Amino acid sequence: MARLNAVNRLTANPAGVLGGGGAVLYVLFIGLPVVALLVRAAQQSDFLDAVTGDVALTALRLSLFTSIVSMAVVVLLGTPFAYLLARSDSLWARVVDSLVELPLVLPPVVAGVAMLMAFGRSGLIGPGLEGLGITIPFTTVAVVFAQIFVASPFFIRSAKLGFQSVAKDYEDVAQTLGVSPWRTFFRITLPLAGPAMFTGLGLAWARALSEFGATMMFAGNLIGETQTMPMAIMTEMETSLDSALALSVMLLAGSVLMLAVLGLLTRRPWQGR
Question: Which pTM does this prediction carry?
Answer without folding.
Answer: 0.84
